[in-house]
């Protein structure tokens, strides 16, 4: 945070969520001139004003801490290991949710889409994929897009990869995380992956389906699944703010039957 002042960070986030300076200023109850001075670095905002702006721009907790540090304040939100005792109850609840979703696959992933928790059905899907392909811990993007991962078993790879690449691209832009950016650069060199600059414009339309299905060969049968994402509604810890749950559901009766027979 040594090269970017907090005004630049506010202006950048405001642009990402497409909010005008005038609208944001009126919404949080300050003058557009004051907000302009904050963004230009001519006025130092209070910590309270920073957090108000962050809330109205729906800024993740990790980046709220970055704003506070950039403005010379102490970070406000802790980052507790998911494996630590302080989050043991939350972790147990998440694992119970994933286990209850079995025999359908489910994951809990962090900001870089590394798998932090999973159920048996999810682990069956990636069984046999080498560690150097899926990463340690297992990374969703690597596992799904690598030619030695699930890419070769994905029957609608152009559409499914377009969906994943758009998500990865948005995450890189939103977070400016160098680890995600490095992962994106690596993936861009793999076979059947479009050029990096096209990712935000990729289309995965399948007009006959209400949601985009993932068609995956599994045990000699083709599975068809759709995904549902969920996050914590009121996180006060960076770890939980970064965490999301991915639950896969069968999109047809054959998939439902095949997965239930795996138990």
From TrEMBL:
Source lineage: Bacteria, Bacillati, Actinomycetota, Actinomycetes, Micromonosporales
GO MF annotations, alphabetized: DNA binding
Pfam families membership: HTH_3, MLTR_LBD
SMART domains, per the entry: HTH_XRE
Protein's UniProt name: Transcriptional regulator
Domain HTH cro/C1-type, chain residue ranges per copy: 10-64
Domain of life: Bacteria
